[in-house]
Amino acid sequence: MRELPRSDPGVADHRSAGRLLWWMVRRVGRELAVSVVLGVVWMCAMALAPALIGIAIDRGVAGRDLGALAAWSAAVLGLGMVQALAGVARHRYGVHNWLDTAYGTVQLTVRQSARLGAALPRRMSSGEVVSIGVSDIEHLGEIIEIIDRAIGAFAAIAVVTVIMLGTSTPLGLVVLIGVPLLLGLVALLLRPLQDRQEAYRTRQGALTTRAADIVTGLRVLRGVGGEALFAGGYRAESQDLRAAGVRVGRVGALLEATQVLLPGLFLALVVWLGARLVLAGDITAGQLVAFFGYTAFLVPPLRTLTEAANALAVALVAARRVVRLLELDPDPASPARPVPMPPGPAALADPRSGLLVRPGELTAIAAADPADAAAIAERLARFTDSEARLGDVPLRDLDLAELRSRVLLAENEARLFAGPLREALGGGAVEHALETAAAEDIVAALPDGLDTEIAARGREFSGGQQQRLRLARALVADPETLILVEPTSAVDAHTEARIAGRLGAARAGRTTVVCTTSPLVLAHADRVAYVEDGKVIAEGTHRELLTGEPRYAATVTRQEG
Fold first, then answer.
1. What pTM did the predictor assign?
2. What's the rounded Cα separation, in Å, for the pair 230 and 244?
3. More confident residue, 69 or 485
4. Residue 547 belongs to a domain with what CATH number?
């Protein structure tokens, strides 16, 4: 077999969940076609077995012809061997297609995650990404694997119907009408099952995200006594997820019961009609045995068809989640022909909010809704496309790598990398940056100081320590313009005052933007822009805005309280 996974999964059609599934089918088209042929041979061999057994009984047993009995018995044996070989080969191809689809989906999602980069956590929760990688890929593989069995089941039912119509028209018509009717009744349960499964998976992703957040900040939560509060929230959400799982289970159990009950009733009807036809002399004893064999045989194909319908419903839910991930756009890229960067320090402007950041100043953005300040910061750093400008040049016209070297956005979601702390902070002389970030005590407590190996994401540090180290790393980079989003939200007031008093001096001559509503930081800003509903509605010093803008005063005094 071909080695899995493939080196390149190709370009997926993610315009809709249905198109994505069809793309997956076409992707394994050759192997799937072979698997379908084998599935038809496998199922039809099973379908023909009762007919051969019936002929052997009529000609060999009832006719007392040992030669005919031996010949038809050999035919049954040969048919069984064909069935066994086709079944083994079909299973091999089916598993191959399952793995190819599952691993191909993994490749697609990993490639898209790498393409999105830092934009991924802002666009989709970690829980949903984990859910796609853990469960959705399995469901997408299952729908591809079951296609050959479903088509084989249809072919086998068709063969049985033709044989029955040729032997007895009433029984043939019962099968011809009964099978679509049974499938229609089962299909009524698929839509409610699909809706409940989608709701369950959404809750599952949200709960996984909450669990990851709690684990990440466990030390901080214990330090402030919030562990029990967040654990209670997780407990409540987990109970909601359990209840949603029970609702899915109820519909699933009803579907499973229907798959057993309806085919069972249908087969009982076929046997009853066949027995009446034997009593009337319309069919032979061998044909009765064949009909009985058909009734037993029809159970697996009918269950396979209902299983395929259920797998399709689940796969559509999974495909929608993958489509949502594949539809996400990464942070803006460099233009094909970038214009030259403005020479020297230049002002940053965000026309959407009306903010102008003058070069060389420490500008603070205080927003009634912190999300508005974060959105402005992303536009100023061109993490999202907008009309923002550096000097007179739109950011979208600049080379992105050059812009990143001059304008740095430091977010609280940024992580520390594993390795020596000095390297995690950017290397070189970091002592001054650590002093500005009030992080000297962190390094002093480490066994090897800056040469201490730290874990991925800085898990050995508390939330406040991680925040101070991230600030030090941003200061080490020393960009022309540094944009900080809530850089002191996780530290105590004493430490925050020290950082606020040192930041301006450390960044003297450079442009600094701080998104915060902390009065301690705002008091040290050269200029404060107050934002409501995404617009700058007042500017001035912290003291001027406190006395002249009641809405600003209400926003920042809430932080003091």
1. 0.58
2. 21
3. 485
4. 3.40.50.300
